Amino acid sequence: MTFAHRHLLGIEPLSQADITSVLDLADQYVTLNRGAQKHSDALAGLTQINMFFENSTRTQSSFELAGKRLGADVMNMSMQTSSVKKGETLIDTALTLNAMHPDLLVVRHPNSGAVALLAQKVNCAVLNAGDGRHEHPTQALLDALTIRRKKGRLHRLTIAICGDIAHSRVARSNLILLGKMENRVRLVGPPTLMPAGIGEFGAEVCHDMREGLKDADVVMMLRLQKERMDGGFIPSEREYYHRYGLDAEKLSHAKPDAIVMHPGPMNRGVEIDGAIADDINRSVIQEQVEMGVAVRMAAMDLLARNLRAERAGKDVAV
Predict the structure, then answer these.
(1) I need a surface site. Which of 9, 97, 226, 264 has the fewest CB within 10 A?
(2) What share of the chain is helix, strand, coil (3-state, %, to 5)?
(3) Which pTM does this prediction carry?
């Protein structure tokens, strides 16, 4: 497998071969997770620390479960009551972590670039679990695995990413990954929720939902991230749902076999009609959650292999 990286900080540095390696290994872990014996020893003897400076139920529990199934010693640090809240700098936190000798560090942080800064200061592999508006690489990889398993391929598909593009690191990581895998990507949403310089992203931009969903193979809805909004981005939730919420009428403009995705948590009746979210023939939202554990197992496994090889090389040198 090709994955010559010390950290997983974003999709941008990854090649097609890197992405395929993660997805192929994740496929194996899907099979493992569906079996009676769900455990592997890929991370046996290694320590995984989860540091979430932002609250997250799905991502943190997914990383925790992934680490435990791979045999790692997993520790969750409560950053809401940590020394950072008392004024400690991120660099001092990194020095403290180094003294604990972790092997894998999973970090979510509200500021773009904070995870990359930590990665420069610690002596272990770092996985970005979401940093500001920058990237959320494992979410894009689990979305890619979901699409590949449902559609039988991950190239030359028409994929509509809809909603709050401006505040979404999920949209950014997916846009990069899907572009690398030669898909046609449309960004759909109101002008107020499109980021500056949107024309440079290499995707089509649509402000009309029906136009954006026309003949789409995949409809990827995004959460309206009200916690990141500091102004009047939408007139009201009711108006937003009327124009950009996914319902049966809007979905009818996509291909008959189009799948519906959402990274969660969902705001039903705002971004998506509950009946669409629960439609087992169209919605793959629960599959995304399942794929998340497998993808995070694969990513940590690959980084651990590189970490062990690096340390073995140093031991030989000594």
Answers:
(1) 226
(2) 45, 15, 40
(3) 0.94
